[in-house]
Write the structure tokens for this entry.
Amino acid sequence: MASCANCGRRLPKESRFCPECGQPTAEGATKVLELPPDETGPVPVTYTRAETSYYGVTPTRLVLGLAGAGVALAIALFATGHWPVGLVLLGLALLLVLVGAETGAMRARAGVAADSVATRGRATRRVLSLRRELRRLAAQRARLLFELGDAVYRDDEQATDAAHGRVSELDELVQRREGEMQEVIAHAQDRLHRRRLEVQATEMVEIPAEPPAPGEQDPVGPAVIPEPYPPPDEGNPPQPAIIPEPGPAVIPEPGPQAPEEGS
């Protein structure tokens, strides 16, 4: 067993420092090693800042529910005259709300909610302004139509053409304002949809398998025609014709001859 070079005490096996004086042993001395061949220079160091997490994976709804219950109970205690306990519960409820506000999910949802309210407010104000303008244009169009009818009744071609032109221009302006109102509504809906997607849980969507390309299917074999079941009734087959066999010829014997006439 090796001994310490400084104090002479025996060193445990594979010891890097002396347990008596603390001096490093020969095996524990600092050594200079060469860099591996795959590292040709200083390796970059990445620093990560640790963020405070008070509740870990506690759901935000649970935190808000507890805070709401605490506020309600504190109000009930205030109503019954228990001010000290009510103040304590109210302080705990506010603490839960403040701590819950530090979580990223709640901040993101609060930001989406605030942006949704602002987007709806801007869109509503713009739509109301356009509707007021459309009502004003409708009243102006009715007045122009009255002037057009009066000009036609008086058979004044110049006034008729002028009134007709103003009505046409007014109709084009009304169409532009209606199209602008539809664009404002569509833009607001698209923005709200995109903002909701930022805090929506990620969903896994399975992509359906693509059908095989033409020519990659199994080779087509000959068509298989199934046998009819039950088999059709074939009936009795025709019998062959019966041909009688020829027998011996019968020759009649000659009888007495009849007397000749006139003899």
The first helix runs from residue 60 to 80. The helical segments are 60-80, 83-101, 104-153, 157-199. The chain has a mean pLDDT of 75. The chain has four helices and no strands.
